[in-house]
Amino acid sequence: MKIYQCGNCQHPVYFANTSCERCKSWLGYLPETDEMIALSPGGTVWDAPASATAGLRYCANHQHGVCNWLLPTERKENLCESCDLNNVIPNLSDPSHLPEWRKLERAKHRLVYALRRLKLPLESQMGGKRLPLAFDFLSEDDATEPVMTGHDSGLITINTNEANSVHREATRIQMQERYRTLIGHFRHEVGHYYWDVLVSENPAALAGFRELFGDDREDYQAALEKHYRNGSPPNWRDNYISEYATTHAWEDWAETWAHYLHLLDMLETANAFGMRTDPALVPDGMMTMHATFDPYEETDFNRIINACIPLTLAVNTLNRGMGRKDLYPFVINQSVRKKLVYVHELLRQSQVQGVW
Length: 356
What we know:
It comes from Neolewinella antarctica. InterPro entries: UCP012641 (IPR031321), Zinc-ribbon_6_bact (IPR011201). The structure is a single chain. This protein is of the alpha+beta class. It has 3 domains: about 5-80, no CATH class; about 80-200; about 230-355, no CATH class. It has helices spanning about 95-115, 165-175, 180-200, 205-215, 220-230, 250-270, 300-320, 335-355, and strands at about 5, 10-15, 25-30, 35-40, 45, 55-60, 70, 85-90, 125, 130, 135-140, 150, 155-160, 275, 290. The strands form 6 sheets. It has a 4-stranded mixed sheet with strand order 8-11-13-12, covered by helices on one side. Strands 3-4-5 form a 3-stranded antiparallel sheet, with no helix packed on it. α4 runs antiparallel to α8 (about 335-355). The longest helix is centred in the C-terminal third of the chain and has 24 residues, at about 250-270. The protein starts with a strand and ends with a helix. The model has no long low-confidence stretch (mean pLDDT about 90).
């Protein structure tokens, strides 16, 4: 994520900020210009006195404290591009659901930011039919059957319990996972959507996919049952980014896709902060990194991964010094690196060819 600044006083602010701590201006994010606008109230219309952009209003979900995105006043829609993807939101008649929804939206808005940076569509065609991306945020309190986080033909379901850090950590331990976060869920599940969009109906992409990830035609349910019955193969670390990636070719893709987005986000942040590593005690410059490029615009994936390796070692070491778990607790082996290159090159080719 880049560094944002208050449009009035230029004080650094976070992506989800709705006000500036220094000058107390109201803030809103304008996706069209990728900037944080300082606002002053004007009835139902909010003006931006320090900007050439005027006549803005908040997304309708701002009233719930879950969105700070802005819309031009002339636009008919009441929801921003990110909130408009919601198919079902938590039942707000239960006040306990609102904090969960806020956490879900913050993760989803960050996801949509990345999808915009990658110039990915939020709606596509599959088999001649419209395939929009959409989200159901479901609580087990309101459901008649267990709520499973997952993806089905563009619809991503997230169990709102995942927004509860205690529940999520208990699940992580039960599942023996090294990492479990809301943003990780969003990045993983949206990977399934973009497999449909980018790979499933592209013969050349599908051939390359099967060579690296395996046969997508394998029975998914049977593979899932086998995974939970037998676990992962002993040597899974030689070819996969996580144990769950061993389940099926689709899950290997989704896990790899999620990690691709993880790496881009980390490196964009490092670039924004001008981070560099150059430890004198490590020979041959193997841990030297200077984040001087935008990973979302970088064509050479080797440049991205070569910067991320020393970066993750540095941030993991910082976390350990504070008694925290590793920020990025994964090892990118050569097999995973090839899969990440595949994702990277597929995205670049699709942008150039305009497959949307």
